[in-house]
Design goal:
The structure holds two protein chains of two kinds. By secondary structure, chain A is an alpha/beta fold. Chain A has one domain: HprK N-terminal domain-like (Udp-n-acetylmuramoylalanyl-d-glutamate--2,6- Diaminopimelate Ligase, Chain: A, domain 1, 3-Layer(aba) Sandwich), CATH 3.40.1390. Chain A contains five helices and six strands, in the order αββαβαβαβαβ. Chain B has one domain: 2-Layer Sandwich (Heat Shock Protein 90). Chain B has five helices and five strands; from the N terminus they run βααββαααββ. Chain B is 35% helix and 27% strand. By secondary structure, chain B is α+β, with helices and mostly antiparallel strands. Classes of the chains: A alpha/beta, B alpha+beta. The interface between A and B is medium-sized, with 22 and 25 residues.
Chain lengths: 124, 142
Protein backbone atom coordinates (compact mmCIF):
# COMPACT_ATOMS: atom_id res chain seq x y z
CA UNK A 1 0.00 0.00 0.00
CA UNK A 2 1.00 3.61 -0.24
CA UNK A 3 0.58 6.44 2.23
CA UNK A 4 -2.65 7.62 0.58
CA UNK A 5 -4.15 4.16 1.25
CA UNK A 6 -3.13 4.51 4.90
CA UNK A 7 -4.75 7.94 5.08
CA UNK A 8 -7.99 6.43 3.78
CA UNK A 9 -7.91 3.42 6.11
CA UNK A 10 -7.13 5.52 9.19
CA UNK A 11 -9.41 8.47 8.32
CA UNK A 12 -6.26 10.44 8.86
CA UNK A 13 -5.38 14.04 8.26
CA UNK A 14 -2.17 14.88 6.40
CA UNK A 15 -0.07 17.35 8.42
CA UNK A 16 2.85 17.59 6.01
CA UNK A 17 4.15 15.97 2.86
CA UNK A 18 0.88 16.17 0.91
CA UNK A 19 2.86 15.79 -2.34
CA UNK A 20 4.47 12.53 -1.22
CA UNK A 21 1.38 10.41 -0.54
CA UNK A 22 2.23 8.03 -3.38
CA UNK A 23 5.26 6.78 -1.41
CA UNK A 24 5.03 3.03 -0.89
CA UNK A 25 4.87 1.58 2.61
CA UNK A 26 6.08 -1.95 3.17
CA UNK A 27 6.00 -2.60 6.91
CA UNK A 28 4.92 -0.89 10.13
CA UNK A 29 6.11 -0.50 13.69
CA UNK A 30 4.15 0.90 16.62
CA UNK A 31 6.08 2.16 19.60
CA UNK A 32 6.65 5.07 21.91
CA UNK A 33 10.06 3.72 22.77
CA UNK A 34 12.51 5.28 20.35
CA UNK A 35 15.25 2.90 21.49
CA UNK A 36 13.14 0.00 20.27
CA UNK A 37 12.42 1.82 17.03
CA UNK A 38 16.15 2.40 16.52
CA UNK A 39 16.77 -1.28 17.13
CA UNK A 40 14.22 -2.77 14.80
CA UNK A 41 13.04 -0.43 12.12
CA UNK A 42 14.23 0.10 8.55
CA UNK A 43 13.60 2.88 6.08
CA UNK A 44 10.67 1.17 4.40
CA UNK A 45 8.74 1.17 7.63
CA UNK A 46 6.03 3.51 8.81
CA UNK A 47 6.12 4.45 12.49
CA UNK A 48 2.91 4.70 14.46
CA UNK A 49 3.44 6.50 17.74
CA UNK A 50 1.87 8.63 20.42
CA UNK A 51 5.09 10.50 21.07
CA UNK A 52 5.21 13.93 19.43
CA UNK A 53 8.56 15.36 20.55
CA UNK A 54 11.68 16.28 18.59
CA UNK A 55 13.26 12.88 19.24
CA UNK A 56 10.67 11.15 17.10
CA UNK A 57 11.89 13.29 14.21
CA UNK A 58 15.53 12.69 15.07
CA UNK A 59 14.88 8.95 15.18
CA UNK A 60 13.06 9.13 11.86
CA UNK A 61 15.98 11.09 10.42
CA UNK A 62 18.56 8.55 11.58
CA UNK A 63 16.55 5.72 10.01
CA UNK A 64 15.49 7.57 6.84
CA UNK A 65 11.84 6.86 7.60
CA UNK A 66 9.29 8.16 5.12
CA UNK A 67 6.13 8.39 7.20
CA UNK A 68 5.02 9.04 10.77
CA UNK A 69 1.52 8.36 12.04
CA UNK A 70 0.43 10.09 15.22
CA UNK A 71 -2.32 8.21 17.01
CA UNK A 72 -5.24 9.51 19.07
CA UNK A 73 -5.44 12.73 17.07
CA UNK A 74 -2.13 14.06 18.34
CA UNK A 75 -0.63 16.96 16.44
CA UNK A 76 2.96 18.10 17.00
CA UNK A 77 3.96 21.76 17.06
CA UNK A 78 4.44 23.76 13.86
CA UNK A 79 8.21 23.82 14.37
CA UNK A 80 8.31 20.04 14.35
CA UNK A 81 6.13 19.85 11.28
CA UNK A 82 8.39 22.29 9.46
CA UNK A 83 11.39 20.16 10.35
CA UNK A 84 9.56 17.00 9.27
CA UNK A 85 8.79 18.60 5.93
CA UNK A 86 12.47 19.51 5.50
CA UNK A 87 13.37 15.89 6.23
CA UNK A 88 11.01 14.78 3.47
CA UNK A 89 8.67 13.02 5.88
CA UNK A 90 4.95 12.57 5.46
CA UNK A 91 3.24 13.15 8.80
CA UNK A 92 -0.36 12.12 9.34
CA UNK A 93 -2.62 12.08 12.39
CA UNK A 94 -5.46 9.66 12.98
CA UNK A 95 -8.29 9.90 15.52
CA UNK A 96 -7.79 6.16 16.19
CA UNK A 97 -5.82 4.95 19.20
CA UNK A 98 -2.48 3.31 18.42
CA UNK A 99 -4.03 -0.14 19.01
CA UNK A 100 -6.94 0.50 16.66
CA UNK A 101 -4.73 2.15 14.05
CA UNK A 102 -2.53 -0.96 14.00
CA UNK A 103 -5.60 -3.19 13.72
CA UNK A 104 -7.01 -1.23 10.82
CA UNK A 105 -3.68 -1.26 8.96
CA UNK A 106 -3.17 -4.96 9.61
CA UNK A 107 -6.66 -5.67 8.29
CA UNK A 108 -5.79 -3.67 5.20
CA UNK A 109 -2.79 -5.93 4.58
CA UNK A 110 0.12 -4.09 6.20
CA UNK A 111 2.44 -6.23 8.33
CA UNK A 112 4.93 -5.59 11.11
CA UNK A 113 8.57 -4.99 10.41
CA UNK A 114 10.31 -8.39 10.54
CA UNK A 115 12.31 -8.78 13.73
CA UNK A 116 14.91 -11.48 13.95
CA UNK A 117 16.31 -10.31 17.21
CA UNK A 118 16.06 -11.50 19.85
CA UNK A 119 13.40 -13.88 18.59
CA UNK A 120 11.55 -14.06 15.30
CA UNK A 121 7.83 -13.31 15.21
CA UNK A 122 7.47 -15.80 12.36
CA UNK A 123 6.71 -18.64 14.76
CA UNK A 124 3.58 -16.93 16.10
CA UNK B 1 47.21 10.03 10.72
CA UNK B 2 47.79 10.98 7.14
CA UNK B 3 45.09 8.71 5.74
CA UNK B 4 42.33 10.29 7.82
CA UNK B 5 39.67 11.62 5.47
CA UNK B 6 37.61 13.29 8.14
CA UNK B 7 37.87 14.00 11.82
CA UNK B 8 35.33 15.79 13.97
CA UNK B 9 34.67 16.14 17.68
CA UNK B 10 31.37 16.94 19.33
CA UNK B 11 31.17 17.88 23.01
CA UNK B 12 27.96 16.45 24.51
CA UNK B 13 26.57 17.88 27.74
CA UNK B 14 24.84 15.83 30.42
CA UNK B 15 21.05 16.12 30.46
CA UNK B 16 20.94 18.45 27.47
CA UNK B 17 17.90 16.81 25.91
CA UNK B 18 17.24 19.75 23.59
CA UNK B 19 20.47 19.37 21.66
CA UNK B 20 20.60 15.57 21.93
CA UNK B 21 20.89 14.18 18.43
CA UNK B 22 22.48 17.23 16.82
CA UNK B 23 25.93 15.65 16.72
CA UNK B 24 24.52 12.48 15.14
CA UNK B 25 22.58 14.48 12.56
CA UNK B 26 25.80 16.29 11.63
CA UNK B 27 27.77 13.04 11.49
CA UNK B 28 25.17 11.53 9.18
CA UNK B 29 25.24 14.63 6.95
CA UNK B 30 29.06 14.57 6.73
CA UNK B 31 29.19 10.86 5.91
CA UNK B 32 26.52 11.25 3.28
CA UNK B 33 28.59 14.00 1.65
CA UNK B 34 31.54 11.61 1.61
CA UNK B 35 29.43 9.13 -0.31
CA UNK B 36 29.23 6.44 2.39
CA UNK B 37 26.77 3.69 1.36
CA UNK B 38 23.19 3.81 2.66
CA UNK B 39 23.60 0.62 4.70
CA UNK B 40 26.70 1.82 6.56
CA UNK B 41 25.24 5.31 6.88
CA UNK B 42 22.13 4.01 8.62
CA UNK B 43 24.09 1.75 10.98
CA UNK B 44 26.47 4.57 11.92
CA UNK B 45 23.54 6.96 12.39
CA UNK B 46 21.67 4.60 14.72
CA UNK B 47 24.77 3.74 16.76
CA UNK B 48 25.83 7.37 16.91
CA UNK B 49 22.41 8.54 18.06
CA UNK B 50 22.30 5.83 20.73
CA UNK B 51 25.76 6.66 22.04
CA UNK B 52 25.04 10.40 21.97
CA UNK B 53 21.85 9.83 23.95
CA UNK B 54 23.75 7.68 26.42
CA UNK B 55 26.13 10.59 27.00
CA UNK B 56 23.14 12.89 27.62
CA UNK B 57 21.15 10.45 29.75
CA UNK B 58 23.82 8.65 31.77
CA UNK B 59 27.12 10.51 31.73
CA UNK B 60 28.47 13.64 33.35
CA UNK B 61 29.25 14.91 29.87
CA UNK B 62 31.77 13.83 27.29
CA UNK B 63 32.94 13.95 23.72
CA UNK B 64 31.78 12.05 20.68
CA UNK B 65 34.45 11.75 17.98
CA UNK B 66 34.18 10.76 14.36
CA UNK B 67 37.09 9.55 12.30
CA UNK B 68 36.88 8.36 8.73
CA UNK B 69 39.71 6.52 7.00
CA UNK B 70 39.52 4.83 3.59
CA UNK B 71 38.61 1.48 5.17
CA UNK B 72 36.33 2.42 8.08
CA UNK B 73 34.25 4.89 10.02
CA UNK B 74 35.18 5.09 13.66
CA UNK B 75 33.02 6.52 16.45
CA UNK B 76 34.53 7.10 19.86
CA UNK B 77 32.53 8.20 22.89
CA UNK B 78 34.52 9.24 25.91
CA UNK B 79 32.80 10.56 29.03
CA UNK B 80 33.86 12.09 32.32
CA UNK B 81 31.99 9.61 34.50
CA UNK B 82 30.38 8.18 36.49
CA UNK B 83 31.39 4.81 34.99
CA UNK B 84 29.40 1.59 34.77
CA UNK B 85 29.70 -0.78 37.77
CA UNK B 86 28.52 -3.92 35.95
CA UNK B 87 29.19 -4.00 32.21
CA UNK B 88 27.55 -7.38 31.64
CA UNK B 89 24.33 -6.08 33.14
CA UNK B 90 24.55 -2.84 31.14
CA UNK B 91 24.91 -4.82 27.91
CA UNK B 92 21.76 -6.82 28.63
CA UNK B 93 18.71 -5.94 26.54
CA UNK B 94 16.02 -4.31 28.62
CA UNK B 95 18.32 -3.29 31.46
CA UNK B 96 18.21 0.44 32.04
CA UNK B 97 18.97 2.97 34.74
CA UNK B 98 17.59 5.91 32.73
CA UNK B 99 15.80 8.74 34.53
CA UNK B 100 12.09 9.45 34.29
CA UNK B 101 12.91 12.44 32.06
CA UNK B 102 14.71 10.19 29.58
CA UNK B 103 11.88 7.66 29.68
CA UNK B 104 9.24 10.31 29.10
CA UNK B 105 11.06 11.26 25.90
CA UNK B 106 10.96 7.71 24.60
CA UNK B 107 14.32 6.43 25.80
CA UNK B 108 15.61 4.18 28.53
CA UNK B 109 14.29 0.94 27.04
CA UNK B 110 17.60 -0.71 27.76
CA UNK B 111 18.38 -1.20 24.08
CA UNK B 112 21.12 1.40 23.65
CA UNK B 113 24.33 -0.58 24.22
CA UNK B 114 23.08 -3.84 22.62
CA UNK B 115 21.84 -1.80 19.68
CA UNK B 116 25.25 -0.14 19.21
CA UNK B 117 26.98 -3.51 19.32
CA UNK B 118 24.52 -4.93 16.82
CA UNK B 119 24.99 -2.10 14.33
CA UNK B 120 28.76 -1.74 14.54
CA UNK B 121 31.23 -4.14 12.92
CA UNK B 122 33.63 -3.58 15.81
CA UNK B 123 32.56 -2.70 19.33
CA UNK B 124 34.56 -2.16 22.47
CA UNK B 125 33.50 -0.71 25.79
CA UNK B 126 35.71 0.08 28.76
CA UNK B 127 34.45 1.57 31.96
CA UNK B 128 35.77 2.39 35.38
CA UNK B 129 33.59 3.70 38.20
CA UNK B 130 34.76 7.14 39.24
CA UNK B 131 36.61 7.69 35.97
CA UNK B 132 34.28 7.15 33.05
CA UNK B 133 33.34 5.09 30.05
CA UNK B 134 34.90 4.84 26.59
CA UNK B 135 33.06 3.19 23.73
CA UNK B 136 34.78 2.56 20.41
CA UNK B 137 32.88 1.45 17.34
CA UNK B 138 34.14 0.65 13.86
CA UNK B 139 32.13 0.37 10.65
CA UNK B 140 33.87 -1.23 7.69
CA UNK B 141 33.72 0.55 4.36
CA UNK B 142 34.45 -2.50 2.24
Amino acid sequence: MNIQDMVNVLHAKVLCGQDRLETKVYTACCSDLMSDVLAFVNEKTVLITGLTNAHVLRTADMLDLKCLVFARGKIPGDDLLEQADEQGLVVITTPATAFTACGLLYEAGLRGVPIEWPESEARL
Amino acid sequence: MSNTLLHAEYPVEAEDYTCAGEASADIKRKLKQLGVSANVLRRVAVASYEVELNLVIHSEGGVLSLEVTPDRVRLISKDRGPGIPDLDLAMREGWSTASETARSLGFGAGMGLPNMKRNADEFDIKSKVGEGTTIQMGFLLA
